[in-house]
Specification:
The chain is built from six helices and 23 strands. By secondary structure, the protein is an alpha+beta fold. The strands form five sheets. Strands 1, 2, 3, 4, 5, 6, 9, 10, 11, 12, 13 and 14 form a twelve-stranded mixed beta sheet that branches. A four-stranded antiparallel beta sheet has the order 20-19-22-23, with no helix packed on it. Strands 17-18-21 form a three-stranded antiparallel beta sheet, with no helix packed on it. The protein has two domains: 295 residues, Alpha/Beta hydrolase fold, catalytic domain (Rossmann fold), CATH 3.40.50; 68 residues, Sandwich (Immunoglobulin-like), CATH 2.60.40. Strand 17 and strand 18 form a beta hairpin.
């Protein structure tokens, strides 16, 4: 990584009685003074590790406009206790606009700039290095894919709103490119089916940008999720915005990760909740999604902790077993059971219709598994 130096000029923009801070910070990186906004919530006291959420403005935009008019994560950060970061893109010398991905030929690489910010914040705050998230709008969304691909060792999960993925990140013609994720990575995308921007069209813009279907297929394959998504309709709470939302989620990936698409039908090049569709709030949807994951996958994936909300514990026998596992003392009917492998992969599920259950595990490989029933988890061993 290129050498960076933190300048001493930190401007404290806002304080209140609860102690939150919004700071303009400057980092000397790759021969330039680069700026970024840091919002520290009122709940931060340094005693516990907190996540970081990076927020990337669109092409030709600014970090200050993005935080104030489109993607204001500050109220969410105050409640959820994370640090929100809004970096400013550098000027592309070819056209004079602020851009995350400068036009070729160029040696500009803002992936390293973001890594430098992470390293700086880790020195200044008590950061949970396993919970660094990214999201962006338009070109910022495209840049979020670049981080998910090229800085996957630092990014736990990410989201893109009205932004596509570069074909050069995953070359469809030969099956390889610069995208090289090293861990199961949960991804959320919020595209509009009527988006007219050439770098975020729902059906893609070849040979430069992937379609939404190509993006979800790539990440679903990488994460080894279910082949087909579960599809539900989001309630149409605003009848005047001219659009509706369909939730499509590819579940049960390695380490319990998922790929989710919030498909804005008739949606344009917008940030839902601030412009365009008003049935969802993109900022809140992003936090709700990414916060469930850390660098290892779904937090508590395959957890063996026993819930204390039930007075009667399940009786599971024999355990270990080579074929049938019996579960008695169930106090829940009409619910489901799930069995996860030691790496969090769903290997079996089914319905529970009585207070006792028998599960045939003869086809499973001998190893440790986790049986989950209505929130309660137990270790089981297949001999």
């Amino acid at each position: 990584m290129k050498k960076t130096t933190l300048l001493s000029g930190i401007i404290f923009l806002a304080f209140n009685l609860f102690g939150q801070q919004q700071l303009n910070r400057t980092l000397f990186f790759d021969g330039q003074n680069r700026s970024f906004i840091v919002y520290v919530p009122s709940t931060y006291d340094g005693s516990t590790q907190v996540p970081i959420v990076f927020n990337f403005h669109g092409g030709a935009g600014t970090s200050s406009d993005f935080i104030n008019y489109e993607n204001d994560m500050r109220p969410i950060a105050d409640t959820a206790n994370f640090i929100a970061v809004y970096p400013q893109a550098a000027v592309d010398p070819t056209d004079g606009s602020y851009s995350w991905l400068h036009k070729t030929p160029t040696t500009h690489n803002d992936v390293n700039f973001i890594e430098a910010i992470i390293d700086t914040l880790i020195n200044d705050y008590n950061i949970d290095n396993d919970r660094v998230y990214a999201c962006g709008y338009s070109e910022g969304g495209l840049f979020s894919y670049e981080l998910g691909c090229r800085m996957n060792n630092r990014i736990a999960s990410f989201a893109s709103v009205s932004g596509s993925m570069l074909t050069e990140s995953y070359r469809l013609d030969n099956g390889f490119g610069s995208c090289s994720p090293i861990h199961p990575t949960a991804v959320l995308l919020i595209p509009g089916t009527s988006d007219g921007s050439f770098h975020s069209m729902y059906n893609g813009f070849q040979p430069y940008y992937l379609s939404v279907n190509e993006i979800t297929t790539y990440w679903a394959n990488h994460n080894n999720t279910a082949i087909n998504p579960t599809i539900t309709n989001v309630p149409n709470t605003n009848n005047s915005d001219g659009s509706t939302v369909e939730k499509r989620i590819w579940e049960n990936g390695d380490n319990c990760v998922a790929v989710q698409e919030l498909k804005v039908i008739n949606g344009g090049h917008d940030w839902p909740g601030s412009s365009g569709n008003m049935d969802i709030n993109a900022s809140q949807e992003i936090w709700n999604f990414v916060s469930k994951y850390d660098i290892n996958g779904l937090i508590n994936c395959g957890s063996t902790e026993i819930s204390t909300s039930y007075d009667v514990e399940f009786k599971i026998f024999p355990n270990p077993s080579s074929n049938i596992i019996y579960v008695n003392n169930l106090d829940k009917n009409n619910c489901n059971f799930q069995i996860f492998s030691s790496i969090g992969k769903l290997v079996m599920n089914g319905a529970i219709n009585s207070t006792s259950l028998s599960i045939d595990i003869s086809d499973l490989k001998p190893q440790l598994y986790v049986l989950k029933i209505d929130g309660i988890s137990y270790k089981i061993i297949k001999e």
